[in-house]
Amino acid sequence: MIDFRSDTVTKPCKTMLQTMVEAEVGDDVYGDDPTVNQLEQFAAQRHGFEASVFVSSGTQANLLAILAHCERGDEYLCGQSAHNYRYEAGGAAVLGSVQPQPVENEPDGSLDLQKLAAYIKPDDFHFARTKLLSLENTIGGKVLSLDYLAQARAFCDQHKLQLHLDGARVYNAAVALEVDIRAIAQHFDSMTICLSKGLGAPIGSLLLGSKALISKARRLRKMLGGGMRQAGILAAAGMYALENNVERLREDHDNARYLAERLNELPGFDTSAYPVQTNLVYVDVANQVDIHKVAKDLIEQGIQITPGYQGMRLVTHLGVSHADIDRLIQALKSR
Ligand SMILES: *Cc1c(COP(=O)(O)O)cnc(C)c1O
């Protein structure tokens, strides 16, 4: 199967599996797992934070961050299309009594700082206390500019807010901008990274932040049932991903651009409204094309896509080659 549904479908390669098999492990809840400890220390240093904690998923990493920054009755500002607002089952509100204050995302994925300023609540007992701004990079495959990040930092300093980055795909942003990851990370009080998407690890995310924040997050992780024992086998995969699978994201971006170009040659498919910046390709599909039927037909040819409402999102990753894209285009052509 060639799978264009998401970069979460990536499977560990043989050498990654080998490092998992050979990983030294211990009970991480006791702090005894040397491989988890090594990953957490490496990640903190590599990204310019004091500390980090290895967690089961990006959703958990975001939840821990919001709950560590905010108390009950606080609120966080975020984008209307932010993953930690729309796609995380309302966790911060349900489990932390932390209220989200979403703001419409601008076409480039950013949040207008003037609009945000208007949503910050005055210090008055009628209101929730605005504590945190949460950004996402990449967001819908779009990269936030370094300039914008600097402005967001200054905005948070001015308004005494903490600044969090949902960096599930932050390495796609760094590779697209051709900057070291720290050029992005330096602006944030906390940041998450998904090791299990384009980076190719099977399971795991990181939350990065100050020592105090991460220590609070560790307590919350335990509370949520996220304390893992011999997690070194997973941390080994994460370490491998950070050491070997970052630079190759460029290939995914090149493939995504190639895919978009080829799709635009087909009648009924149009990506021109969504210039490709990283590994996500959004496609408008004409009414005459029954995209659900297309998806069914493709399965028979060994190709998986997720049909959407009058469109689709295709994702390139380490399991999709240039030749696989040609196969998809050929299959669409010969319908
Ligand atoms: C995938 C994703 C997450 C959540 O990660 P999971 O590991 O699937 O829980 C969070 N934020 C963004 C932007 C994502 O793309």
Summed up, what is this model?
The chain has 335 residues and is an alpha/beta fold.
Describe the model.
The chain is about 45% helix and about 15% strand. The protein has helices at about 15-20, 35-45, 60-70, 85, 90-95, 115-120, 145-160, 170-175, 180-185, 210-225, 230-245, 250-265, 290-300, 320-335, and strands at about 1-5, 50-55, 75-80, 100-105, 130-135, 160-165, 190-195, 205-210, 270, 280-285, 305, 305, 310-315. The two termini are about 20 Å apart. It has about 325 residues and is an alpha/beta fold. The strands form 3 sheets. A 7-stranded mixed beta sheet has the order 2-8-7-6-5-3-4, with helices on both faces. Strands 9-10-13-12 form a 4-stranded antiparallel beta sheet. The chain is globular and about 60 Å long. The protein has 2 domains: about 10-245, Type I PLP-dependent aspartate aminotransferase-like (Major domain) (Aspartate Aminotransferase, domain 2, 3-Layer(aba) Sandwich); about 250-335, Alpha-Beta Complex (Aspartate Aminotransferase, domain 1), CATH 3.90.1150.10. The structure holds pyridoxal-5'-phosphate.
What's the shape? globular
Helix content: 40-55%
Which small molecules are bound? pyridoxal-5'-phosphate
Kindly name the structural category: alpha/beta
**Overall average pLDDT:** 97
Strand order of the largest sheet: 2-8-7-6-5-3-4
Radius of gyration: 20 Å
Secondary structure: number of strands: 13
Beta-strand residue fraction: 15-25%
Can you tell me the CATH class of the largest domain?
Alpha Beta
CATH architecture descriptor name of the largest domain: 3-Layer(aba) Sandwich
Report the CATH topology name of the largest domain: Aspartate Aminotransferase, domain 2
User: Element order, helices and strands?
Assistant: EHHEHEHHEHEHEHHEEHHHEEHEEEH
Q: How far apart lie the N and C ends?
A: 18 Å
Main sheet properties: 7 strands, mixed
The CATH superfamily of the largest domain is known as: Type I PLP-dependent aspartate aminotransferase-like (Major domain)
- Overall structural domain count: 2
